[in-house]
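Bench notes, bay 3.
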Amino acid sequence: MLTRPPLLGCVSSMNLKQIETFIWIARLGSFAAASQRLNTTQSAISTRIQELELDLGVQLFVRGRRAASLTAKGHDLLGRAEALMEQVWDIQTSVGEAEQVSGIIRMGVADLIALTWLGDLVKEIHANYRRVKLDLQIGLAMELVEKLRGGELDIVLAPGDAWRSEFSAVPLGHAEFLWMARSDFDIPDRALSPRDLQQWPIITLSSQSYHHRLVNQWFRDNKASSRNYIECNSIGVIASLTADGLGIGLIPTSFVSERLKAGELRIVTCDPQIAPVGMFALFQKDCTHPLANEIASIASRVSPLADAGERIQKADPALQ
């Protein structure tokens, strides 16, 4: 058993940085991952845990070459440590002045949101929490959600109902996705079925994306199948390739309103249409970050989609 002479009589020198470090090592499974998550050196992480173990007089981790696992005492501490940090952060956010709250929040943002209203959201966050640093990662929804699962991100703004049961999910409204083509694209000027549409190249996000999954589901549900995909990793690229006449793209109307007005693109009427796609702010149900819920609320207020979400149909439950 680890021992250490008592400091100031019976008062421990245990501090909140040590507790926070302990929690992140336990969640991420290694000292190296925790050092990246907390934006500090691995030696600083090791020092904090060594001091915490000495303060408590127990070993908290079994250290391996690349991983760290909790001891029995470590498991005993984890729930108490998370409850303690929740109380501390509740005091900071509900009692303290908002401008005094500091730290880093790692936020994953789906491409569509990043290209439309992310700037408004960042301005609003900084207006409320000037000392908070935002670490933004832009990417595909599925990739961002996987990082959220692994503790690499604190909050994700992304499309799709598929993860609502796994995470805390704050609705951000719905986005309308419609099939579009270049204005002079050689395609009949009538309502087209999925079987009609499958004969032309279809421009989508990568096969690992929610967007691609949505397109595939639409074809399958209507007994059709497109094997001629052009894949990319950006909604902006889909819009550009579609405007260049390389195929038909499923594009959010809010993103290309100017191109539609200018006549660069036209809407391809399809029957059935693809249901509007729900957007959500997602974070872990046991998230201990003080601002995850607050930033989700800010995103809900800032989102230009929020009002429309109350009036239109949710995305197909089969996609869940």
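Next record in the batch:
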Amino acid sequence: MHHTPNLPGRAFGLAASILAAGPAVEPLAYPKPGNTHRFREAIDRRLEHFAVSSTVLSHVLASVAEEWSGGAGRLGYHIYQAVKLSRRVHGGGNTCLGTATLLVPLAAALPSGWSSVDELPRVASSIVSSSGVDDAVWFYRAILAASPSYLGRLESGVPDATVRGWERLVAGRRLTFYKLLLKASEWDPVSRELVSGYPETVWVYRRLREAWGTEKWNGLVVEVYLDLLSARPDGLVYRKWGGRVARMVMEMARTARRLGAPWTGRGRAYMDEMDRTLWSNGWNPGSTADILAAGISLVLLERCVEEGLCR
């Protein structure tokens, strides 16, 4: 167990920057069916776009950690800043709404007392639980800044970002960031992570922590991705394409794993076909990739801690 209570101020910036590295590393793993990888990318979500987003996130997360070293700060505002600045700098599409949503609370938790990397997500979740209405307002602005193609209405019991006067509705209902995420957690894995202590993110981190820098890294990242996708419908696919397609993608991932993907010839062949099918239909399991990226961030943070550089 690594004892890291109250990181000194000089370590905040490096620890926050390390958290931002996961979203740059995750897209390199291949082939992750339906998502950006070394050999397949969308025109507005290329590898260079993710690299730029990671750099912008590094700047934003360092600001978050510095702000919260004073005991409090803003979550929604910084998520908005990450999305807005990333898109303005790289000129592409939405590459960091999900990862920023996961990583900003983790960066806010850095100045708090935590005894191991495993505990940091629990602290981050407690910070989310105390969020305010202003955080929700800024998060809605982040969604609009991301301009995702799935901004259709969803019967979720909360104001949709496409509804005129959503700011008045959010304020009138006293809808905090936490309440918004709690409702969205019924269908969205990323929201579920934030309100429940990041269980999938921690699971990814524990699965991958020993593989970094080894020849097993790429294969294990793909295996973990498929296992996540096999366990529940992806939130982005569900929002954009509906429950039937989300379940279909989940079943494809289960079939790939039953065939031994990514380690066997049959499994790899099926996984390659699955990748082509998902890309041809635009079925990108982005929520799963976001959680995978956050888990990789924790792997890298632990290495930083082990080297005595992030404490």
